[in-house]
Structure formats: C-alpha cells, structure tokens
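Customer ticket, subject: "Can you confirm the structure for Porphobilinogen deaminase?"

Message body: Hello, I'm evaluating your service for our small team and ran a test protein. I'd like someone to confirm that this is what the system normally returns, since I don't have a reference to compare against.
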Amino acid sequence: MVARAGLARLGRLDDVTETLEPVQMLPAPAQGALAVECRAADHRLAAVLAELDDADTRAAVTAERALLAELEAGCSAPVGAIAEVVESIDEEGRVFEELSLRGCVAALDGSDVIRASGVGTSGRARELGLSVAAELFELGARELMWERGKTRARKI
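Agent reply: Thanks for trying us out. I re-ran your input and got the following:
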C-alpha cells in the first residue's frame, strides 16, 4: 500500500488501482494541518496570520489532538482520527453545523481495530476528543495498546 500523494509527486497516478477513503483507513490525528507561529510582541504580523486561521480546521485539529493526548499516544502509535464540521438538520428542519469525530486504535500488527465516534459543537472540540477517547478506552483501547507495548518490549 502506497500513499496516493506520493505517487502523484512521482507522476505515477496511472499506477493507482484503488483510493481508500478516510472512513476506510483513518489518517493520523491532525494529518496535514499547519501551524504558524510568530513573536508575541509582533502584533502586525499576528493580525496578518490571524486571517489565515480557519475556525473549522482549528476545531477539527483540536478534537483530533485531544483524542491523541488522552490516549497518551505519540505520532508512531497506531491511532487514527478525523474530525470535520458537517451540516445536520434538527427536528424542525433547521440546518445547523456540528463537529463530527471518528477515532480508532489498532493493534500494531493490524489484527484488531477499535473504532468510536461522536458529535458535538466546534466550541467544545476538546471535550469531544476526550469523549471519543473515553469511548475507545471503554471498548478496550487501553488493553490493545498495552498489548502493543508488550509486543514492542519483547522485540527490543
């Protein structure tokens, strides 16, 4: 399995036989997000950079990173997450936006995957990440990650 983006960079998209959707294989939490920093005292530059901030992306990244942190997992852990702001319809037919988060923890060898999801508001993105992480723990993520650590320790 090879990343489509890598084949695109090589000009080999003709070799692509299948593209997996994020629902099939969740990406690493906050995959593709960029962060830009500047000096706190540089108010002019901070104002320019603030225009680059996208509230939906910030909410998605906040939820995904909260899930990762709560699981106490690092960038090499078999953890996936994707959050996005989606439109929903209430009982009266009104359209509103909410934040949807899907997360998973996998065994290092891929033999087992635990998935969980939740929805909330963008303003409570961190809490959504913590909630989905708690559900993953309830479904056995801690034990699955412990087994991963035990396997890794034997190989060292």
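A couple of notes from the result: The radius of gyration is 18 Å. The chain is about 40% helix and 20% strand. Feel free to reply with more questions.
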